[in-house]
Design brief:
- By secondary structure, this protein is of the alpha+beta class.
- The protein has three domains: about 100 residues, Glutaredoxin; about 120 residues; about 80 residues, Alpha-Beta Plaits.
- Helix 1 links the parallel strand 1 and strand 2.
């Protein structure tokens, strides 16, 4: 048996009686030499002679060209010793592991090599897979699950913040009541919990796949998660957290979306009144900004001051143009439940 480097893997020509075994590896692989010795031992036990060729895979392009499933890869007459790996397309410079008695190992099991040799020599009992354990899921198989979890987390975060998103949309479009989002307020703690669980699950899957790609599962090495996948996962996580926290900065967003409030209008001397309203469901900064914006558009309204913490709004208006009851009706029409405070 002789060793060689850089020889293309191929099946023996028709009629050839010499079995050819190729061991593909890359420099620095700790399991290369033990795999060679394992092949030699399998040949000795089977009483077979073979041409042994060692192929050093020197780069990613070469790995694709040789359909390299990881180091060490062993092919007998051009066939991978693991039948289940022969249809894999996970090519690249990575370590490869095999299942041996229920545990992962970097050196192909002797039984697996001997079975491949017997099959190649015509003495096998069919394509029996000696290591019948089911291979671990590859990262490509779990990628859709990760994506679904992260998309679901973003959706749950949006739902958790609808209490402050809907008022802005209603104020911009004029469709729906400004207070329509208040119905989602009671569900917010639960939706935030769902968001957190989905985010954690997505990141756990990603971390598990990263660990698997560092020590690939048997049958063939899994492709590691790409940098862009990590960036996408990170952006999805940041988006979900940002949406979940939206109520805390919704007032600033509402002011940007609706424009800065116009300066307080002036009325003729003696034609100024104020009406104060208790609004128990005014509990979101976006709601307060949106309601103030809607009230300022009314003819006769001079200024509006709202306080979310106190659930209160004070409207300065021209009594010759409208009255407090009309203002109360407008606030109620926006979906709130105001009560006019008695004048002191």
């Amino acid at each position: 048996m002789s060793g060689a480097s850089g020889i293309e893997p191929h099946s023996p020509s028709e009629g050839s009686s010499i079995m050819k075994i190729e061991i593909l590896y890359f420099d620095g692989c700790p399991h290369h030499r033990p795999a060679v010795e394992q092949v030699k031992e399998a040949l000795r036990q089977e009483g077979l002679n073979a041409e042994l060729v060692e192929i050093n895979v020197t780069g990613a392009a070469r790995a694709q060209e040789l359909k390299f499933l990881g180091s060490p890869t062993i092919r007998v007459n051009g066939q991978d010793i693991e039948p289940a790996a022969r249809s894999s397309t996970s090519f690249g410079l990575m370590c490869r592991t095999y299942m041996d008695g229920g545990r992962q190992t970097g050196v192909p099991p002797l039984k697996l090599i001997r079975e491949a040799l017997r099959n190649a020599a015509g003495n096998g009992q069919g394509d029996e897979i000696c290591c019948a354990e089911r291979p671990a899921r590859s990262t490509s198989e779990t990628a859709p699950r990760r994506s679904l979890l992260m998309v679901s987390a973003v959706a749950a975060a949006i739902a958790a913040s609808l209490c402050c998103i809907l008022p802005i949309l209603a104020a911009i479009t004029g469709l729906g009541a400004i207070a329509a989002g208040a119905a989602f307020e009671k569900w917010r703690p639960y939706l935030l919990g769902v968001t957190g669980l989905l985010l954690a699950a997505g990141l756990i899957f990603a971390w598990r796949d990263r660990k698997r790609s560092c020590a690939p599962g048997s049958l063939c090495a899994a492709k590691p998660i790409s940098r862009w996948n990590w960036i996408t996962l990170g952006l999805a996580a940041v988006l979900a957290v940002g949406l979940a926290a939206f109520p805390y900065y919704s007032g600033a967003v509402a002011r940007m979306a609706l424009g800065a409030p116009s300066p307080a209008r002036s009325a003729g001397a003696g034609h100024v009144s104020q009406a104060a309203f208790q609004i128990p469901d005014l509990d979101c900064p976006a709601c307060a900004v949106s309601l103030s914006s809607a009230l300022r558009k009314l003819p006769g309204v001079l200024d509006v001051s709202s306080d979310v913490d106190a659930h209160r709004a004070v409207v300065t208006y021209d009594p010759t143009a409208l009255n407090a009851r009309a203002l109360e009706d407008v606030i109620a029409g926006a979906g709130f439940h105001p009560s006019l405070e008695p004048r002191s």
